[in-house]
């Protein structure tokens, strides 16, 4: 995005200085006549030099580190510093190659535009990030090991600073912390022996150590954190020597020593989200006539609303309204309790082959998976993805086994590996195992394969 911003700024600055239109400017650039006596190689070199300088300086200033590690003002100051430093390096390069014929106006306007656009882009991105934090999107759940004053102070510190995006999930009692315990008993959820059980049930992303423990105990927790892909931090001046090779990282103004950091495939996830937004937006636009036809058919077929929104559990246990075309009678929820003995599946899944609550039109919509088309709205909102584990009803997750919660580690999807491969074995164990395989082997290519297989299944009419 920084590279695209620089290129856009160069184009706008050049068009402004040369007083030419975009098409004429593109032809002159292609023919090498935009700046007389300067080859395209030199211009390309200067552009690449500025881009690389900006990226390297931005990385050195930690502008590509997680946004929660800084605030708005700090990020804006660092952005301006990176742009101006890169601009100084560019002017130095122009001086060294004696490029007097290259307009200094273009250079100054380019640096000014890059500074402005990058600052505005990062400001908008941070505002959207904070808005997501308020909705529970993008937040990080934390457990604090210790019940002493340090642990309580850390808890209120994390909760008091908005841009950190942390959500406190409980204290863990540890050996040596009980003598100075000041944390409320209601917030102490377990001990070190049950730490990673709570890590899974509460969808924890980071663990903070605030109390002194034996070195062997911390090393054991560190190994388990690596296996569970959970970040682990300790407060400095503890566990002598364990964090010797680790740099101090500031969470706001609080110094911590990260012992382990899970590697997140940021580029892949960004591409996945981009595909989700583009694909769902196009689908909603192109399928709008079909939406209207289905809505009319539902109203003619049976009484009740066109859409049905059920409470589903998404990533990290966040409940959201999952939108579908109504395929059952409007009293379906009240009738479910009387049909429990007819359930053909075990565990958390509920399925009846000839469900009497399903309407005549509803059977057709389900067969071709047309009832799930409105979920593209959930994808645009960020509640769901195109591909991922199917979201489970909130009422079914409450009493589910611990192993079932593994699928809530990722964003749920409209379709998934279980939908295209698990129909021959519709059990809950099959649902869990196939979704875990998807989570552990995820790639963009796997998503594309599942989408293609889903299209085939919809055309054939093998939906449920």
Biggest sheet strand line-up: 3-2-1-4-5-7-6
- Flag low-confidence runs: none
Name the helix and strand elements from N-terminus to C-terminus, one letter apiece. HHHHHEHEEHEHEEEHHEEHHHEEHEHHH
Secondary structure tally: strands: 12
Shape: flat
Mean of the pLDDT scores? 81
The largest β sheet comes out as: 7 strands, mixed
Alpha-carbon distance between the termini? 42 Å
- When the domains are counted, the total is 3
Helix-strand category: alpha/beta
Portion of residues in beta strands equals 5-15%
Q: Rg from C-alpha positions?
A: 28 Å
Helix content: 40-55%
Number of distinct helices: 17
What is this structure, in a nutshell?
By secondary structure, the chain is of the alpha/beta class. About 50% of the residues lie in helices and about 10% in strands.
Outline the structure in words.
With 464 residues, the protein is of the alpha/beta class. It folds into three domains: 2-134, no CATH class; 140-263, NAD(P)-binding Rossmann-like Domain (Rossmann fold); 267-460, no CATH class. The protein has helices at residues 2-18, 22-31, 40-60, 72-96, 104-134, 149-160, 195-201, 215-228, 266-286, 288-301, 332-336, 360-367, 375-381, 394-397, 417-421, 428-440, 444-460; strands at 140-145, 166-173, 188-191, 206-209, 231-234, 249-251, 254-260, 307-313, 319-325, 385-387, 392-393, 413-415. The strands form three sheets. A seven-stranded mixed beta sheet has the order 3-2-1-4-5-7-6, sandwiched between helices. A three-stranded antiparallel beta sheet has the order 9-8-11. 28% of the residues are buried.
């Amino acid at each position: 995005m920084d590279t695209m911003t620089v290129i856009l700024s160069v184009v706008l600055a050049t068009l402004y200085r040369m007083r030419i239109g975009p098409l004429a400017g593109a032809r002159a650039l292609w023919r090498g006549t935009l700046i007389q006596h300067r080859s395209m190689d030199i211009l390309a070199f200067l552009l690449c030099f500025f881009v690389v300088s900006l990226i390297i300086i931005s990385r050195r200033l930690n502008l590509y580190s997680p946004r929660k590690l800084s605030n708005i003002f700090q990020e804006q100051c660092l952005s301006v510093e990176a742009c101006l430093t890169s601009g100084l390096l560019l002017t130095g390069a122009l001086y060294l190659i004696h490029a007097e014929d290259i307009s200094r106006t273009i250079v100054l306007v380019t640096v000014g535009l890059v500074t402005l656009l990058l600052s505005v882009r990062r400001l908008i991105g941070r505002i959207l990030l904070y808005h997501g934090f308020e909705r529970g999107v993008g937040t990080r759940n934390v457990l604090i090991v210790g019940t002493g004053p340090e642990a309580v102070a850390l808890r209120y510190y994390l909760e008091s600073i908005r841009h950190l995006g942390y959500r406190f999930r409980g204290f863990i009692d540890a050996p040596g912390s009980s003598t100075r315990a000041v944390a409320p008993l209601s917030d102490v959820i377990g001990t070190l022996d049950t730490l990673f059980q709570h890590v899974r049930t509460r969808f924890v992303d980071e663990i903070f150590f605030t109390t002194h423990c034996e070195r062997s105990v911390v090393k054991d927790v560190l190994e388990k954190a690596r296996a569970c892909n959970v970040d682990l931090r300790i407060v400095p001046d503890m566990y002598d020597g364990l964090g010797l090779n680790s740099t101090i990282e500031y969470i706001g103004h609080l110094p911590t020593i990260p012992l382990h950091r899970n590697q997140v495939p940021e580029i892949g996830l960004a591409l996945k989200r981009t595909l989700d937004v583009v694909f769902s937006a196009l689908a909603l636009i192109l399928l709008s006539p079909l939406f209207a036809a289905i809505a009319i058919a539902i109203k003619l077929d049976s009484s009740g609303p066109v859409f049905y929104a059920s409470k589903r559990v998404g990533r990290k246990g966040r409940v959201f309204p999952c939108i579908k075309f109504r395929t059952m009678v409007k009293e379906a929820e009240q009738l479910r309790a009387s049909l429990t003995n007819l359930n053909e599946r075990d565990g958390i899944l509920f399925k009846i082959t000839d469900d009497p609550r399903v309407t005549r039109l509803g059977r057709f919509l389900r067969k071709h998976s047309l009832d799930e088309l409105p979920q593209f709205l959930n994808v645009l909102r960020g509640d769901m993805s195109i591909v991922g584990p199917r979201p489970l009803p909130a009422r079914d997750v409450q009493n589910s086994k611990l192993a079932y919660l593994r699928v809530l580690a990722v964003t749920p999807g409209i379709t998934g590996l279980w939908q295209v491969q698990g129909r021959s074995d519709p059990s809950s164990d099959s649902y869990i195992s196939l979704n875990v395989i998807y989570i552990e082997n995820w790639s963009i290519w796997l998503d594309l394969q599942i989408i293609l297989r889903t299209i085939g299944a919809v055309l054939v009419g093998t939906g449920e």
